[in-house]
Amino acid sequence: MWKRKVQLHFEHLMEDSLDERSIHDVVKALSSKIRSRRRKSVARLADLSQDSTNRELMVKDGALEPLIKLLERDEGEHQSHALATLSSLASSHAYLRKELLAAGIVPATLPLLANDNPDIKCGAACVLYHISCDREGGEQIIDAGAGAELSRMLFRGETSYEEWVIQLIGNLIQDHPQMMQIIAQSGGVGRLVSAASTSSGSRVYAVRVLALILEADSKDAAGSLNKGEVQTMVLTAGGIPLMIEALTPVSGDREMGKWAIRGLARISMHDPSRQAIFTYHGVQAIVQMLWEDDQLVQESAAKTVAFLASSPVVGIEQSLSKSVPPLREFLDAPSNGLRQWSAKAIGNLAELGKELQMTISEEGTVEKLVRGLDAQSHWVKLAMVSALESLIKDCPANQDLAMTCGAMQGLCRIAFGLSNANSMVKIALGVMSMLCSESVDSQRVVVEQLDGIKGLLTILSNSGEDLVVSARFRMALKLLEELVQAPETINQVRSEFLFKGGMRLLSAVFEVNDPECQSTVMKIIFRIADGSPEGVIDGSLRDSDINNMVQALRSDSESCRAEAANTLATLADASFLYSAQIISSGGLAPLVELSYSGNINLMTQAAKALTSIARGSQENRTLVAEANAVPPLVFMMDMGNEECANEAVRALAAIAEEDQSNLLLLSHEPVLEPLVSRLKGADGEKARDVVVLLSLLSRTLTPKEAQMFEERAVHDVIEGLKEMVTAGDSDSQIRALKAMKGIADSPVCAQESILGTISSLVIFLIESKNNAVRQQASSVLSQMAYQVKVLAPNIREGGLPVLIPFLKGSSPAVGEQALDAMLKVFDQPKEGEESPGRAFCQAGGIRPLANVMTFGTMACKWKSAALVAELAKDSLEFCEMAVRDGLVTSLVRVLAIDDPECREAAQKALAILTGKDIAAMAQQERIQLITELLASKGGDSGEAASFLKSMETFSVASGDDGHHSASGSRDFSFGEASPSSNLEDDMHYSSCEQIPDSYLCPITHELMVEPVIAADGHTYERGAIEAWFRMHSSSPMTNRELPNLRLISNHVVERLIAKYVEGGK
User: From CA 263, how far away is CA 276, in angstroms rounded?
Assistant: First the structure.
């Protein structure tokens, strides 16, 4: 009876509707010793587990443990129902899967994968699939060694359980890429392709697993497999056309299309795979996926396009051009991944050709990329700046558009943001360099608005010794190189760079053996130093820096050697200090070695450096010559390379300038013929160097060489000197003057035409506003004046105009030499020649002669008066012009000087001009004559009277005619005129002692009325010194340049003179 009741109760439990108590009893029956009851209860639970409420009650009532124990019993039907129930439980909630894992579901289920019963295998795979949906479950499955069995099951291709096996493998690969190795190595890739080719339910899952395997391979999870080997397996097995087919609408499965595009996105990283995609006409289908409304699909399609656009496949750009519109729209998408890959795709597409680049640039693409520079995501920002780089490359229109959109500001934030990765900073700096290389406005924005120099120096200073040659460092150097190229910004760049210690930061590069960086650094130093104001860069480089650059002259890199020579040349030009450091660092020897190298570029740069060093000082020129630099430089003139030869000529000119020993050394080399030949075809700066060198060499020529020089070169040399003088820049004028020194000492200067031309050029430069030019011109003129004295006997009287330039604005010494030469011409008169007086007037010599007579030394005064007498002897024209142009006034002043030679010469000249002997005249007659003479220069008698009143002293020594004063020392004198006196009353005899020298003006030798002190400390009459300053900036007493032309009234001397005059003296 009891057994019957139990039987009825159990049958009731098997009914459809059960309460909580009943489920508890069914669960309890799982542990029954009666097999039939266990069978029925597990089957009942399999049915009940389809309801979520029942599943929770089962777990609550402890069903997990007995169900798992049933799996361990070799009872096929019981195992199948238990697996079905456990599968339902595992698919329910994550907390239920945790309960199952805790109960040991994985070790209990794994052995069933090897069961002979296909249904049990399928159930076990299904349970493990659901368990693998959680990462912890997947780890237990992998750790338990399920991979090998799963790969065997996959390889068998049993359709009854293949779907669950493939899904399980997919889950395991997704979270545990090492599973990919097991599948790939066991040949599972080919089987997956086969499964995806069928029309079974496994197809979509096979495509998914293929995509996941490819993704795992791209994440460097290949282990023992080589990179890209899985991609090759998929390609070989025919996976690409399969995935392309899955993209088409014919497939009708959006889920499969999603996984197919993911797989293609990964496999397209593989070069052969990109070719296969193009071959199987997959590009159009991939582009079509960009229009899907699934964001992940769009991202995968954009990624695929990005990789395809990097392919060298011919013709692919035409197929990909239709992807531009959606990609452009995706640049503003909310998804970072979609923005990133769209930007990458656009960047790669822009690299495919100019036409596609311009197509992409339309409709605001540049503006969107510029906005993307401020993206929060690092990867988006990196993609945006990379795409911008591709879009503006070699495209001025896009560069201008990028600048208009404010790209430089965004780029600076990336480049100078220290938290950004090196790769991003490198690209940003590269784009900035690109913009700056094409636009001065870009350089101004970086330098003036964005404090770019500070940012670049920060990058350089934060690189450290271990990162000194990093990509960030290299690109910072490149951008800095671009910024120092523009003349418009170089001054500001130089100022900030030097102020913030940029030179010291750059010098760290020399400690690292990187020739490329060293070359760039030296280019930057070259631009900073080139054209810098004197003294600006002094001290910014240490001795060790110069020594490092000298060492770079022997670098294995040709560009490094060339830049070192070029930079050292500029530094030597910029500062004498650096030229001395170059020499002390042993720089001459490697420079001479480079000039012997046979490499045109290196030889040219070496010659530049030797030129700059030689121009530093006399000592430098000597050391350069002693380093045996002359022979290779002479050889370089015949190398056949124009630039190399020009630099060699320039270097030789620098070595020979103002160094007689070097000039003699050079004269022993075969240089004259090549220099004369080069002169014919040279122009501009090239011709100047040849002209200077030939001029210097002219003083060392043998008679035969001098003849050749006169016949073939002298005319061109003179024309070259004229061009240099009229060029306007002081450096060219000073070089021309130095060259003229050579001409002045050469035999060709004996020709009147050459002497006249050279002297005219020198006089033109004496009036220069540049102090250095004036001093050099005075020096040359002095040298030529001595030469003139030697040549004077050979000059015809009609050739006197050749000497007139030596009177114009020259120093007293030069003027005296010129007067000596002119007077010497008259020592041996030559009959039948043109009147010297007329030639002298026509050449404009009267005014210079009057100036020398007024402002010159005592010797100049009497010699100029003597010259007037000689010139006036046979030329009425000269006499008329002498009176008209004020020469008479100057003679009257000379006549007033208490010097026998001056008085005698002036009296003689005036006697010839007037036909009257002033010394033999009575006082009243003299006054009348002088008044007439003064009035004859073009003014009226009132002007003459005014002139006489302004004279402080005028005296003529008495003769034997009885017309002399009681004292006999002076015939007459003029005092200062008073308002009530007339001209005669202003003249009175003086019987007093001689006037003190301190009261006389050193220029006019007359009593001063308004004494003033000049910067040289001497006191002059104001009118006389002001007249001197109108033509000179030097002291009349010392002929040295004055620091200023200010005049200060000397009231002490003025009072002493007034007291002296009032005392009757």
Answer: 14
Which amino acid, residue 32? S
Helices (H), 112-145: 118-131, 135-143
Pairing of strands 1048-1049, 1019-1021: unpaired
- By DSSP bridging, strand 987-988 and strand 973-974 are antiparallel
Residue 503 in contact with residue 545, Cβ under 8 Å?
yes
Burial degree of 397 (CB within 10 A; 0-12, 13-18, 19+) = exposed
Whether the CA torsion 439, 443, 446, 448 is positive or negative: it is: negative
The answer to whether 364 and 332 are in contact (CB under 8 A) is no
Residue 681: burial class (beta carbons within 10 Å; 0-12, 13-18, 19+)? exposed
* Most trustworthy range by pLDDT among 540-549, 833-842, 919-928: 540-549
Q: DSSP secondary-structure letter at 973?
A: E
- Give the rounded distance of the alpha carbon of 589 from its chain centre: 29
Length in residues, the chain: 1065
Helix (H, G, I), strand (E, B) or coil at 1000: strand
DSSP 188-245: HHHHHHHHHHSSSTHHHHHHHHHHHHHHHHHTT--TTSPTTHHHHHHHHTTHHHHHHH
Percentage of residues of the chain with pLDDT beyond 70 = 80
Q: What's the CA gap between 766 and 780, in Å, rounded? A: 10
Question: For residues 168 and 173, what is the distance between their CA atoms, to the nearest angstrom?
Answer: 9
Say whether pLDDT at 661 is over 50: yes
Of 920, 929, 970, 969, nearest in space to 948 by CA: 929
Q: What is the CA radius of gyration of the chain?
A: 53
Which residue is listed with tokens 């289920």? 109
What's the mean per-residue pLDDT of the chain?
Answer: 77
When pLDDT is cut at 50, 70 and 90, the band that residue 580 belongs to is confident
Task: List Cα–Cα distances, 694 to 184, 620, 656, 697, 730, in angstroms.
Answer: 83, 21, 10, 5, 20
Burial 454-488 (b: 16+ CB within 10 A, else e): ebbbbbbeebeeeebbbebbbbbbbbbbbbbbbee
At residue 202's C-alpha, the angle toward residues 197 and 205, to 5°, is 95
> What is the spatial distance between Cα 360 and Cα 380, in angstroms, rounded to a whole number?
18
